[in-house]
Structures
1.
Amino acid sequence: MSTSPQESVRRQNLGALLRYVHVRGATSRAELTVRLGLNRSTIGALTADLATAGLIDEGVPQETGRAGRPSIVVRPRSSRVYGYAISLELERLRAARIGLGGKVLDTRATERPPGAEPAPAVAALAALVADMRRSAPADGVDVGCGVAVSAAVRHHLGWSDAALEPALAAALDAPPPFIGGTADLAALAEHTRGAATGADNVIYLHGDAGISAGIIAGGRRITGYGGHGGEVGHMVVNPSGRLCGCGSRGCWETEIGERALLHLAGRPVPTPGAAMATAVQHAREGDPGAQAAVAHAADWLGFGVANLVNIFNPTVVVFGGTLRELYLAAPAQIHRRIESMALPACRDHVALHTPDLGDDAPLVGAAELAFESLLADPLSR
Amino acid sequence: MSTSPQESVRRQNLGALLRYVHVRGATSRAELTVRLGLNRSTIGALTADLATAGLIDEGVPQETGRAGRPSIVVRPRSSRVYGYAISLELERLRAARIGLGGKVLDTRATERPPGAEPAPAVAALAALVADMRRSAPADGVDVGCGVAVSAAVRHHLGWSDAALEPALAAALDAPPPFIGGTADLAALAEHTRGAATGADNVIYLHGDAGISAGIIAGGRRITGYGGHGGEVGHMVVNPSGRLCGCGSRGCWETEIGERALLHLAGRPVPTPGAAMATAVQHAREGDPGAQAAVAHAADWLGFGVANLVNIFNPTVVVFGGTLRELYLAAPAQIHRRIESMALPACRDHVALHTPDLGDDAPLVGAAELAFESLLADPLSR
């Protein structure tokens, strides 16, 4: 079946309008005509089609206090149109139901079942999703599932996306999910609706058991040939440093990761996953070993960021996961390292941020993957 | 003036056809119907329009020896449709006239006039271009000028693209030229018609007075916010290494650049720009100091490539400029370093190459910039 040029333009416009309210939230028709460059009657026809399909609703805005007839406001139907998002981490499993517009409607979390085989984790994740499905609206539009897999799961456990995809599809009794890396999807989320909105060149650094990066360059996600780009944790920064699990010496994550903190702080920490927060807390309380450990890790954090700033010339760097704690413990020191090491042309426009979406960023980013086909062609389903 | 959907589709198709023969060279109409997914009569109408505009010609192919009527072949009119390309380097200035299809029609080169001010270099480049213009066909289509500026010129001389653009436009008596980095444009050229054809994730490493990278990720050039991405020469690989001109210690280019070779080889070299080739030659002739210097630089070359492979997950790495010599001097050693340091998932599909286009790569890439608006809308001029 071929599509006429007019029909193809209409579908593009439907997608552009739905994407606009998905990303920006409730928007007046007047603003949509300006932003999309379409006339009022076209916007009216498009919103009518999207409303009929149950994807948006329209209504008068709150009292504006201004004179004149208010422009009708178009809102994404977040509670009716949603996707599922999964975060597969070394220590825990998380799942969420996320509405059009990026609204987190429901969440579940549990510890990851121990063991090196993925089957128990897949079953546990499916149980979280099944539980959320029971409270989802019966007439809802389920756009599918996105999955964020942490670099630690990929490398320490060796679970490949290619193996997880059919296992999750079977367990969820659903089409194959969309899979990406945790840092990559957190970058997508912060770029779409968080600390990096409007920036075309972004590095999101995620710390957990390892360190990885999500990279937006020229407005697009950079994931490499096999989706394994962003493995900055194994950028060697200190060739005379300690041995890393990967076989190299002085990888970035051996200098700034949780294990490095554990090693350097010389104090026990309660649970894996809390080492960074605990070390930072002990440093704040005046413990000299913890202070030295935090200063060491912060210095190497700035060091590695300077390298990445020279490579990518970004305008925003976001510190997520355990690196959020580390950044907030020593922002001036990290700034100084970047100032002294990165080239002026590359560092001049860089702003350092923590994630607006906090720990939800990977989940919100995973849901973006699931929304993509709806946004590309809203009435095709 | 608004454009009808049909007209917009026709322009897209004209651009797609012209781009196809620009990139692939002479192509039969039969192959174009298959590759562009258009029917024979549409292809016939498009080629007729492009031929009338003087952008292509059509003819019967060489004798194929096969039975049946041969399909008409469409060729880019390389001798009539051309752009100018400039390479602004620390030691020399180069210019070329390059035809549609990427054919180098004419070249000129001269030493860069000494001094820290750009005016003499701009005047010398304009003279090279003016000289080529005299032998260009009178009825030719000049698509404009692309400029490759080496990272050494940007950083050692401090010449900004923003200052060079109007100066070159005035000296050339032409619209503002398109400017990019040497490594970035060499990457574009090798990706379009060289060693990295068909690869979507490519790192082109260029060595001259410094080291820089041109990066293709997801099929597109990655240049960063200000066009200064790819400054891999100032990725610090050896924090206990020697001081770099940028103020850091142990930058990649202090370990693998020409100055490093000069320092390590302990032998004089004839001229700047020839240090790498000379050191490699001396090493081949059995000079122990040169052998040690080459082994040192090759090892650090592999080290830095492993970092970049982990960050970008590319399928092709190309070694250009002085790094071509260094790679060819010790390919096995460089392979071993990458094998031992890069993560398996990132390194498994990487092929290492030298540039197919040799030293012409930055010029051919600069011309690609100049051709871009013609290819986007062939009949608009």
2.
Amino acid sequence: MGAKAKIEKFWTGDPIDSLRVNPGFSLADVDTTSTPGFDGKKKHSVEALRKGASIFRHQQEMFFAGSQDGDERKVLLVLQAMDTSGKGGIVRHVVGAADPQGIDHLAFKAPTKAELSHDFLWRIRKQLPGAGRIGVFDRSHYEDVLITRVRELFPLETIDERYDEINAFEQELTDDGTTVIKVMLHISSDEQKSRLAERLDRPDKYWKYNPGDVDERLHWPAYQEAYQVALERTSTTAAPWFVIPADHKWYARLAVQHLLIDALTRMELSWPEADYDIKTEKARLRAS
Amino acid sequence: MGAKAKIEKFWTGDPIDSLRVNPGFSLADVDTTSTPGFDGKKKHSVEALRKGASIFRHQQEMFFAGSQDGDERKVLLVLQAMDTSGKGGIVRHVVGAADPQGIDHLAFKAPTKAELSHDFLWRIRKQLPGAGRIGVFDRSHYEDVLITRVRELFPLETIDERYDEINAFEQELTDDGTTVIKVMLHISSDEQKSRLAERLDRPDKYWKYNPGDVDERLHWPAYQEAYQVALERTSTTAAPWFVIPADHKWYARLAVQHLLIDALTRMELSWPEADYDIKTEKARLRAS
């Protein structure tokens, strides 16, 4: 693919294999400052991200166009991370390059009482992307095995059952033509500390800080463990996890952009053929 | 305002008054090739749009931030136009500059049977933006007085009642803190013809063409009349219409961007104060 070739220029190697969570994966062994597959620095990332954005935008339009012609495939990007890891930046700088008309962005908050009265996947199912659309989940059904596990909001047996339920759910999505891209942005505890400190230093960032952020932070090791278990148990062939070192925001953005471009490239998209007679239509138009 | 001053540089005058639909307005008298308030050419518009995007992005973030602090105001941008007028380009190039997390984009298609069994505003109400969000309606409740009138889908008396119902509805939105920005992108019949012809000439545009587009085109005068009536009867103090000459796509984009920036500027936004004690939180964070 031409698009593929253009991307390779900016990468020393395809980072996908080294980012994918395979058997034996250990979250603790990931260097959060590393930049797998990308040899450049921040200054080199700007141009790479810009070029990637143009490729992504083009592919996303073709993907959307295909759905108008009966292609029923969908993409779902799941973003999970500790606070301040840069999910918002991914949405702005990576997803934001695409046409808003083809993006379904959803930020999942703590479930409401009504939502809690249903199965945990109930509210997730309602927000799944339709054909030709890229759904972006900022937090997701994985909160139901992360914060719930750390805070002991449900019995461990209930949580334990959910990993299999999630795998079955994601297999169903895949069978239905959804490419599920699951991303954990991974920062160090020290990096989080300095990002939270910045929010307390800048009046234009005060609103992003919440005293509850420090409460959660005190559970850092328990969260890392909950992530480790979730990654182990739900990184499947149908819907693998990618853990992206995110101390360098610019790298995380490049890597997620790369995952999106890779997924769309593998779809082998093309512009839909006309489903009308072009000559006839030209004549009708001329006469109108 | 600083932002306001920066915008003025690119404009010879504020275009808002000349774009607003006031009593005595006549759609037929609008020159679709004109560029009210902007003296430059296409090449000058690029930099103006880029600078405007940065102002818009900044204001939109502040608007969103305010909602986390209890500000309940909302913005609703309604886009109406004949086919090929460039609604999609507005969404991509103007709205697309903002953070996708703060945008609710909705494209209204022909109503389903279920939707038709309700009042025409039922499906619209369900999609209204929440606090701190900018809703973007690509087509809207105005279709219920446009295509329905031209195609005689409802008795004229029913449609006639709807203008008042729309005014009451929009007054209610305004009372509830929603700034309603209603935009009609206005192109000439010849411009539409050449844009449709382009879609029939370019394989990457075939998917955007639909034989029904020519069917609708044959009703051009009736649509212009339906627009004239809608504009006359629903351009209110609470929710005025703006008719934007759109034969130059670049001008239409600048003008809609200007309307959005103007609306946000008039809100006199500022970053929310911290609702926690900064010193205490810094100490807690240090200790964490």
